[in-house]
Amino acid sequence: MKRMGLRLIALNRILGLLIHCWLFLLESKASLFTLKDDSENSSSSSSSIALVPALFVMGDSSVDCGTNNYLPTFARANHLPYGRDFDTHQPTGRFSNGRIPVDFLALRLGIPFVPSYLGQTGNVKDMIHGVNYASAAAGIILSTGSELGQHISFTQQIQQFTDTFQQFILTMGENAATTLIANSVFYISIGINDYIHYYLLNVSNVDNLYLPWTFNQLLASSLSQEIKNLYNINVRKIVVSGLAPIGCAPNYLWQYGSVNGECVEQINDMAIEFNFLMRYKIDKLAMELPGANIIFCDVFEGSMDILKNHELYGFNITTEACCGVGKYNGWIMCLSAEMACNNASNHIWWDQFHPTDAVNSILADNIWNGRHTKMCHPMNLEDMVNQKPK
């Protein structure tokens, strides 16, 4: 009986061990499938090799990926048809039918799409590949866009990044955090709303206080100072996106009574002047700030190339927005799916101010390596991230 008892105990132990091994194999197999699924999902949104640790984004609706979803504001794109051609076919807060430029650039950099600052949990693991602080209606001037409701101004976005940086320091240590920041790319797209929602609206009688050239100098100097502030917290790789030709946007074609879709030159002239000033300021900063790697990408030039050569790019509707109401669909912003055209891929403009996913893809290609036309100075983003340390 004693021997039989010992045998039963031994058999139970063997059976228990076999069950344990079986469960382990099942868990391992499940883990393999999970890793495979994660890998497949990742490969659909990023390449296998990350060229930089992270991508941090600051700016306005041209690069907002969902910040304003969490704010009381009219400047929101969290409803269809926004996002209908995005990877998930759902609205995300991006002011586009699909991806925005920084989404395409994230793919090039080999990292996932970065979350909006207000849309992530606050854990460092959720921010390790970058954060998007951009907020629709934001401008360089603090009060820009305030008539639309709450937004996160450019200065406030820099403060949010500072908070993120402090979290990195507390989690991974100061040396690791500063190294991560120094090797990451910072993409800035700001300034267009300072015209749309401030100067052109003549807020506080501003056009009597500043001529366009003087206003441009104010904006360029302010943005230049904010770039210095970023440099002082160890930011070294910066892409500054210039202003687009908003004088060609459907809203201004409607407002200024364009007869045959001619762009409003006096508005475009202000964008050209600002871009000229910012390029000069960035050249100056490159000489003043040791180790800084700052490039300026002239979105105006890239956009005008698309407009002038639209047939070569596959666009046959150049003045009318895909979604909107009124002449050129420029009167009211895109509010419902019924207001949108069936096919956005042959349109340059998605709504009254924002380009389509197809245009964003072309501009991102130009920022990356000048594939269609040279936009960036003194180098492209690909050259910046592939530079060997001196």
From TrEMBL:
CDD domains: SGNH_plant_lipase_like (cd01837). Keywords: Hydrolase, Lipid degradation, Lipid metabolism. Gene3D superfamilies: SGNH hydrolase (3.40.50.1110). InterPro entries: GDSL, GDSL_Est/Lipase, SGNH_hydro_sf, SGNH_plant_lipase-like. GO terms for biological process: lipid catabolic process. GO terms for molecular function: hydrolase activity, acting on ester bonds. Belongs to the 'GDSL' lipolytic enzyme family. This is Putative triacylglycerol lipase. The lineage of its organism: Eukaryota, Viridiplantae, Streptophyta, Embryophyta, Tracheophyta.
